Fold this protein.
Amino acid sequence: EVQLKESGPGLVQPSQTLSLTCTVSGFSLTDYSVHWVRQPPGKGLEWMGVMWSGGSTAYNSALKSRLSISRDTSKSQVFLKMNSLQTEDTAIYYCTRDAATYWGQGVMVTVSS
Amino acid sequence: DIQMTQSPSSLPASLGDRVTITCRASQDIGNYLRWFQQKPGKSPRLMIYGATNLANGVPSRFSGSRSGSDYSLTINSLESEDMAIYYCLQHNEYPFTFGSGTKLEIK
């Protein structure tokens, strides 16, 4: 069974760095891509970036200067790091497989002092 | 960036109705178009992929179609469990972009 689960801090202070982990099971990171998508409260979905199966990455140009995606295939984990967080980065952060075929449950991140 | 213009933003409908939601792509995306359903407090669920293909476990009353740069999601014979927000996604070109969402609600 394909599963993805996001984890990370629920609260981040403004200007700090967000670090999230997506732990997957039921498939290999070397066979499938993992994407990050976020959703501010009450708003729509925003594609953030992708870790391709071959290890390359691509990012939303609006976030590219602040965003980094990496992985540890031995642990079946994909990592998201985004710096210089502001209140508008408050959102539910999801990791997904392929172009959002499968989704994690999401993790709510609040940016506040 | 490719813009996905989704309409309507809100769609009141009655049980048993046939409804259609549309996304218009600002550039050619081929059939790299997906539809998602999201219920309150839940992660989105893939409904349609490749513009016209039903995802696993999706009821046959859902269908997807394409006419030029317009992509549509149609639900025949609306059921109460279909009340949700629907989003389209183009995954032909970076950055992938979602439509703004359509809230389907009971009239």
